[in-house]
């Protein structure tokens, strides 16, 4: 039966090799330096950077204070071993947006009546809808856009709601309120896209998933801010 210190050190060594592989031409740097460098480009390393740096300190404490080959002065708790193994798995096989966010995506043509979209909101409690003109993707209609349209037009047009087309509301949406991503995108990359856009003052309504991230491809899933928060 392996001790926790042995499990921890073995897993730590595998992660260290993995980080050096990611660094390519800078493999001579130490573990902590590698974590700090990769945090700028790798969303998974960035997510776990503080924990990985703490693991480096624990590794040093175990190795430098080892009394002999069979006895370690510090034995990591089971939760620590479990956590480092989870991080290794995420680095080796990061969760992808597909199949995690695979779902039926309800889409509309921009020529359809707005009433049909409002009906689906009431029935399915869905708030983001990809809009097409034939096979051409035109954008996303959200509850925010619908609210903006109502604020400007309710008094004059609410009695003629059956005549309002989705295209009328689409013009009230920001053209950059979405991003298209490929099905091979990791959950951490998706999270970084949301954060990056917020940092630029642009709050995305959703990420749309297709096989290669092209608007002409079939939609495989959709991710909202709330979806990311849940995972």
TrEMBL record:
Domain CBS: 101-156, 172-231
Record has Transferase as a keyword: no
Alphabetical list of InterPro entries matching this protein: CBS_dom (IPR000644), CBS_dom_sf (IPR046342)
PROSITE patterns given in the database record: CBS (PS51371)
Entry keywords, A to Z: CBS domain
Protein name according to UniProt: CBS domain-containing protein
